[in-house]
Amino acid sequence: MDTLRKTNGAGSWSSKYDIYRLSFDRGEWGQDYNSDAAESGVVNVAYNWTMLGTNGALRKCFKSDNIENGLSSRVLIAEMPDCSFSKMPKFGKRSAEDEARIQEAVTRLRSFTGLVDVPRLRKAIEAWVEEKRVEAAKDIDHVKDTYRKRAAVIGFRCGVIFHLLSGKDKESKACLDFALMMAEYCLKQQIKVFGEALRHEYVNAQDECQRYGANHSIFDQLAPTFTMDDLRALKRGFCGESALRNIVSRWCRDGWIEKTDNKHWAKVSQSHIATLSQ
């Protein structure tokens, strides 16, 4: 990762961050200059990459631009366990059986073309991302709301690979569980690694600070009937007046609350909220 960061720092001509970002969805990328070694043109980018790096290299690579432009949400972070004070590891070669299984899996994946229809997996991921939307809305958590979307895509793709390798006609329960596990893991890691930086960008851009709380929902802490002052007190001054009005408006639009008079709002019953969320 440190090498990648250095090779992307020689000027705009050398920066490949846009390519990394657009390749997530096989998007179009192009350049508008030519020389004896390059030509103008537009291509669809198909580019997968894996790299290893320290926390310091990760922070240098994912600064404000790569946090806000969406590159951070397109990365699956795999944190290695802490091996402080552990003995030197002893590595061995993979067995012939393991090598054969790997090659078999690669050959199987390469052989698939065309549409892969996975309705059960789509439904499971759709339910998961909706659950995270509700959590984010209750916590007024813009970071979770941002990262939940592509975490769902990454989890879905992991589920498709699982399904293809299984060789079954329909997605198994193990396939669905694996996809949801990967989506959850991806979301937690992205929030852990990039959450504070993205939240800082929201503060600078919108004058609105969002604090991530895993167990405390702003919505759930409010009384059944509340005022704007109650919401303002829970936000502890970290939210502007326009942002507070937007929050209340969003809750009204989603059917979570209803206005009772000029100053008070009442929560809609939980059963009604559950029905609306389905």
Quick tags:
278 residues; 3-stranded antiparallel beta sheet; mainly alpha; 5 strands; two-stranded antiparallel sheet
- Are there runs of 5+ residues with pLDDT below 50, and where? 205-216, 271-278
Radius of gyration (CA) equals: 23 Å
Query: What letter string, H or E per element, gives the SSE order?
Result: HHEEHHHHHHHEHHEEH
List how many beta strands DSSP finds: 5
Spatial order of strands in the largest sheet: 3-5-4
What fraction strand?
Answer: 5-15%
How would you sum up the global shape?
globular
Structural class: mainly alpha
What does this protein look like?
With 278 residues, the chain is mainly alpha-helical. The protein has helices at 2-7, 17-22, 55-61, 64-68, 96-111, 119-139, 142-166, 173-206, 218-221, 228-235, 241-253, 270-277; strands at residues 28-31, 41-44, 225-227, 257-259, 264-267. A hairpin with a 4-residue loop joins strand 4 (257-259) and strand 5 (264-267). Helix 6 packs antiparallel against helix 7, helix 6 runs parallel beside helix 8 and helix 7 (142-166) runs antiparallel to helix 8. It is globular. The chain starts with a helix and ends with a helix.
Concise structural overview:
It is built from twelve helices and five strands. The protein is mainly alpha-helical and 278 residues long.
Secondary structure: elements and pairs:
Elements (H helix, E strand, L loop, with lengths): L1 H6 L9 H6 L5 E4 L9 E4 L10 H7 L2 H5 L27 H16 L7 H21 L2 H25 L6 H34 L11 H4 L3 E3 H8 L5 H13 L3 E3 L4 E4 L2 H8 L1
Antiparallel strand pairs: 1-2, 3-5, 4-5
